[in-house]
Specification:
Mean pLDDT: 81
Shape: elongated
Strand content: 5-15%
Helix content: 40-55%
Low-confidence stretches: none
Structural class: mainly alpha
Distance between the termini: 45 Å
Strand order of the largest sheet: 1-3-2
Number of strands: 3
Length: 106
């Protein structure tokens, strides 16, 4: 152990206003919450109706089914129902350049 290190139990004295510290903490927490929200959104499963609304302009369920059958979009089946992953729909927008990526609100 070198002489330059501070022991883990040593008190730290802050020389800036408490409000500055609180603003910094708020910004960090806000960024972490936003990052977690985006991660959850990426893995969210959407119904066909919700999936159709991702595309701008919106597509029909018939178009979504055709793209699924053509292999452009992957679907997942659970309990006889069909779902689509949000992240995979966003990836498909790169292939289907006519459609715009939706904006994500926090």
């Amino acid at each position: 152990m070198s002489n330059n290190t501070i022991p883990a139990q040593a008190p730290i004295i802050l020389t800036f206003p408490l409000e500055t510290l609180l603003q910094s903490f708020r910004a960090i927490v806000k960024e972490e919450i936003k990052a977690e929200h985006l991660n959850e959104l990426q893995e969210k499963l959407l119904s066909p109706a919700e999936a159709c609304k991702i595309f701008q302009p919106n597509i029909s369920k018939v178009t979504l089914s055709k793209w699924t059958a053509d292999g452009l979009i992957q679907d997942y089946r659970m309990g006889g129902r069909r779902f689509y992953k949000y992240s995979e729909l966003i990836q498909s927008l790169l292939i289907l350049k006519k459609y715009k990526k939706p904006s994500v609100t926090s």
